[in-house]
Amino acid sequence: MNLPSPPESLSSAERRRWVTPEPLNVAPELVGLPLATPWRRGVAMALDLAVVALVAESGDLWLFAGLVLVVVQLRNQRHAKEDRKRLGWLLAALLVWLAASQAWSLWQAPKREPAAAERVLARAGAASAAAPASGAAPGAATGSALPPAVADDEDDPAETQGQHIARLEAELEKARAARPMTVREQAEELAENVAARFGWGIVYFSLLPAWWGGQTLGKRALRLRVLQLTGQPVTVMTSLKRYGGYAAGMATGGLGFAQILWDPNRQGLQDKAAHTVVVDLRAPRRSPAAGFPQAEAAQPAAILAPVPHRPPEEPRP
Q: How many other CB atoms sit within 10 Å of the CB of residue 112?
């Protein structure tokens, strides 16, 4: 099928607002769909990366289960549309729950340490107050009420209660001070974090778009959708190709992502790899009469139309 070509009257900026024909196979029903702007795609990607970063802290068990699901889906992708929709909502709810749990843990972490320190100091203060008033060493009458290391160090019987608490506070601050990490430990921690985020990226960017109609959490919030230019539904393999395109875009120093600024269909390297586009569900569709006339597609057929049959003329006498 011959597709209409965009008229020459369209400027380069207008060409990047709607899906236009390209030499490869493009479903005719996609021509004229509004393309997502770069800033909306950037915001959606930022939201997705934030979710992946939070979920990556949830543990290796969830990651292993997600990778197993990816392998299973690659071997068997036959699901009805309604089944894929239910799976998509279930996966989205699970990801939101994991991300929210990790965000709450990070929010509460700074509050837990002072509370724990206050409990330790309260117990130490109670133990010091229970010391005999005759000047005996604090902790001597309390037995195991104080930590052994603290009790062993108390060799000054003239130490007052205030001095004792001050010394405990100093030791507690010293114990809570983070020990500098060695270069090897930093490299190992970095490798673990990168591996976890890379694995969760595979799970997130392959299963969710395939099960949720070409959308991730970020794209759904910004009302964007990934579509195959062939008109077929987005599959796990298509999503994996896009994820590989993300890696290639980073390998090019970001030029693969910046390509959406000048590409006619705003296709980044990930879109070129998977033959997809990202459309904006809010904007209206451009009708063929506004710049993609169907008459141009009918011209080749008119040229190749058979000549009407004429009866032979009778010979003249």
A: 10
In what helix (H) or strand (E) does residue 280 lie, and over which residues does it extend?
strand 276-280
Q: Read off the tokens for 231.
A: 């008109």
**HEC profile for 121-145?**
HHHHHHHHHCCCCCCCCCCCCCHHH
Compute the distance between CA of residue 73 and CA of residue 236 in angstroms, rounded to an integer.
7
> Residue 93 in contact with residue 148, Cβ under 8 Å?
no
Q: Give tens-digit pLDDT for 247-275.
A: 899 989 889 999 999 998 999 999 999 99
β-sheet bridge partners, residue 35: 279
Phi-psi region of 70 (alpha: psi -120 to 50; beta: other; left: phi over 0): alpha
User: Residue 235 — left, alpha, or beta (φ > 0 → left; ψ -120 to 50 → alpha)?
Assistant: beta
Residue type, 158: A
- Amino acid 141 reads A
Q: Are 281 and 223 in contact (CB under 8 A)?
A: yes
> What Å distances lie between residue 101 and 18, 51, 54, 97, 188, CA to CA?
39, 11, 9, 6, 25
Residue 137, pLDDT above cutoff 50: no
Comparing CA positions, the residue from 74, 89, 96 lying closest to residue 215 is 89
Phi-psi region of 254 (alpha: psi -120 to 50; beta: other; left: phi over 0): left
Domain range summary for the chain, segments of one domain joined by +: 12-89+192-285, 104-176
Please report how many Cα atoms fall inside a 13 Å half-sphere around the Cα of residue 211, on the Cβ side: 21
Q: How far apart are CA 281 and CA 301, in angstroms?
A: 34
pLDDT of the residue at 139: 46
Question: What tens digit of pLDDT does each residue of 203-228 get?
Answer: 999 999 999 999 999 999 999 999 99
Beta bridge partners of residue 286, listed in sequence order: none
The pTM assigned to this predicted structure is 0.67
Nearest-CA neighbor of 70 among 235, 197, 213?
235
Buried/exposed code over 154-165 (b: 16+ C-beta within 10 A; e: otherwise):
beeeebeeeebb
